[in-house]
Specification:
The chain is an alpha/beta fold and 214 residues long. The protein has a single domain, classed as TIM Barrel (Alpha-Beta Barrel), CATH 3.20.20. Helix content is 32%, strand content 27%. The strands form two sheets. An eight-stranded parallel beta barrel has the order 1-2-7-8-9-10-11-12, surrounded by five helices. A three-stranded antiparallel β-sheet has the order 4-5-6, with no helix packed on it. Helix 6 links the parallel strand 11 and strand 12. Helix 1 runs parallel beside helix 2. The relative contact order is 0.15. It comes from Dactylosporangium aurantiacum. InterPro entries: PLC-like_Pdiesterase_TIM-brl. This is Glycerophosphodiester phosphodiesterase. One of its GO terms (molecular function) is phosphoric diester hydrolase activity.
């Protein structure tokens, strides 16, 4: 099973901890803010505030926000990064591609997004692994059609959208069907019951326990 540390790449210490834990991928959210590629899940409200939907509202100055270049430097050529490109600005994709060309031209990197049009920015970068994400029933229907038309490296789908039959259908077209969010033992059992081949989790101790011993 592919183990993905959810949002662990949004803080440099968490990134190092996740890599040391032996996970297969470390997910990091990339957002564009005033021309800068920032690593954060929280949404910006104006220039001063960061909002984590349905949770926290913080002043930007109180929350450390690394840049994409910082994350790539900390990863030091490790191929286990999964960059989740966030909207609403589609320019995040070509700017991310430009940074990867400049600073990590030969490093395999996984790129994930729910806005699949962003993948066009990575044409010509053969080492980029594209993961199509679906967070709604409409997107799930679209991804089921997509995989019948073209090969894909992998999928990332909200767990509660899936059944064992749908996952089996998707596995006819790709080996990698990851599900999120899997933060509890109950969610892990659910992911296994539907046949997911990967889990995306913020529960690093759980991931560490699932990682194969070296």
């Amino acid at each position: 099973m592919t183990l993905v540390a959810h949002r662990a790449g949004n803080a440099l210490a968490d990134l190092r901890a996740a890599l040391d834990a032996g996970v297969d991928l470390v997910e990091a959210d990339v957002r564009l803010h005033r021309g800068t590629l920032e690593m954060r899940h929280a949404r910006a409200i104006g220039r001063q505030l960061l909002w984590e939907p349905w949770r926290d509202l913080n002043r930007r100055r109180d929350i450390p926000v690394p840049l994409l270049a910082d994350v790539l430097t900390t990863a030091a050529g490790d191929s286990r990064l999964m960059l989740d490109l966030k909207g609403p600005f589609r320019a995040v994709a070509p700017l991310t591609a430009a940074v990867l060309r400049e600073t990590a031209p030969d490093v395999p990197v996984t790129v994930c997004t729910r806005d699949w049009s962003m993948f066009a920015a990575f044409d010509g970068l053969p080492h980029i692994r594209r993961v199509y994400s679906a967070g709604s029933r409409r997107q799930l229907d679209q991804v089921r059609q997509l995989v019948r038309r073209q090969p894909v490296h992998g999928l990332s789908i909200r767990l509660d959208l899936l059944t064992a039959d749908v996952v089996a259908e998707l596995h006819e077209h790709t080996d990698l069907v990851m599900v999120w969010s899997v933060d509890t033992e109950a969610a892990l059992a659910r992911a296994r019951s539907v046949g997911a081949s990967g889990i995306i989790s913020k529960n690093l101790p759980m991931l560490r326990g699932l990682a194969p011993a070296e």
